Every structure is written in structure tokens, then in C-alpha cells.
Prior knowledge:
With 216 residues, this protein is mostly helical.
Amino acid sequence: MAENTWRQEGRFNMNMPGPNSGIARFLTKICDLIFLNVVFILTSCTVVCLGAAVTALYMTAMELYRERDCTPVRDFLRNLRKAFTASTPAAVLLLADLTLLAVLCRVLYAGTLLFPPELFVLFCISAVILTAILSWLFPLLACFENTFSRHFGNAVRLALARLPITFFITAVNLLPILVLLFLPQFLGAFLGVWLLIGAAAGAYGNLFYLRRIFKQ
């Protein structure tokens, strides 16, 4: 009876997913992205570290994508220090973009236009274009060493040359705004998910397309 019980337990253990199984790797990746997202949210709350935090987010997400031995929190903090100086000009553009988006959302929910419709349309176009450029700029800062002017020029050229991918990564980065505008009834649930894993998952998903282009 004891031998029979032992064999049954052994058969049960053999059917358990091992550390190298697809399910185990998937769950490990989800946990890594959650840790990465939490430390990113906490760091980006300080305006001074915002640009460096986005760059470090992409740097750490790239390490996770390459399946290196990556510890999300430790590697994010290391990448944050490394990217701080190079990301300062991009942080200024990001703050301008976030301010513009906040103003546009305020206008939409004000019930009345605070400035002429033509100016509102111009601000909307400017915000989308700036977000599209930043969607390329931060991954470039994370993956390559170059001067900021060349990074910015490359971001503009890639945004124009790869319009389908530009549309996708821009939509991913604007997803909180899009949910607020078109699906406000789901905003609470979405924000909960986004604060848990959304930013890290978005960066990880964007790199699925961007890394193929960067290899070229």
C-alpha cells in the first residue's frame, strides 16, 4: 500500500509544471512585470525622475524580453541612475505632452470650450504628434547610445516611415486617455489594472515590434 501511494505521488509530481514549463515562465513574466510596474509608478511620481523612469522602464523591459537573469526592481533602479542625464531633454518634452493632454481632457469635460475650436483641434494634433515621437524616442534612448538631437531626429524619421507601428504604439501609450474618453464606465477597473501592470506591459508589448526594427 505504501509503495502504491508513493508511485501515485510520484506520478502527480511528474505532471506538475516545472520551472521551465510554458505556464511557469508565463507566470514568472507576469510577476516580473508587476514588480517593474510598481517601482516605475512610485519613481515616476517624482517629476524630476519622470523621463529617466520611462527610459529605465524600457531598458528593464528589454532585459526581460531577452530573458536574461533580470531582477526587475534592482535592474530598474540601476537603469534609472544610468539614464538620468541622457533622459533630461526627453523629460521636458514628456512633461509638455502630459500638460497638453491634461488641458485637452479638462476642456472636454468642462462643458464649454475655453478657447476657439481651431485652437483646440491644433492642440489635439500637436499632442498626438508629440506622443508619437516620444513613443519612439524613449525606446531609442533605452536601446542605443547617441546624442539627444540624433535620437530625436531618428524618432521623427521612424515615426513617419513606420506609420502602422507608430499608430499602434501611440495608441498603447494613450490608452488611459482613450478609455477616459470612449469607455468612462470602465475607467475605474482599467486604472486598477494599469496601476498594477499596465505601464510595464505596454512597454513590453511595444518592444515586440520595436526590437525587430531596431535590429535592422
